[in-house]
Amino acid sequence: MDLGWSEACAMLNDRHLRLMAFIGDRSNDALYGAPMKGANNAWTTGRWAEASGASHYRSAAKAVRAQLKAMKAK
Question: What kind and span of H or E run contains 18?
Fold first, then answer.
């Protein structure tokens, strides 16, 4: 996918808002009361949301740093 800076920022912001809405729309019991259905492990929905959110933020930050470094090298 070839995105410009403004499109990438907009996409990241949109996904952030969607993650926050997903978490905010659920009770603590819904997030942490039982393992997530279909996950085939003991992680709760809240734990999955915590892990996937942080993982995607780390990946995005890594991609931005790499791109900035590549741009400086030119």
Answer: helix 5-24
> Could you give the C-alpha distances from 65 to 15, 53, 72, 74, in angstroms and in order?
19, 18, 11, 15
Could you tell me the pTM of the whole model? 0.69
Cite the beta strand spans of the chain per DSSP E: none
Interatomic CA distance for residues 53 and 19, integer angstroms: 7
**Residue 53 to residue 44: CA distance in whole angstroms:** 14
Residue-by-residue pLDDT tens, the chain, 74 positions: 688 889 988 988 998 899 899 999 999 999 999 999 998 999 999 999 888 877 888 888 898 899 889 989 88
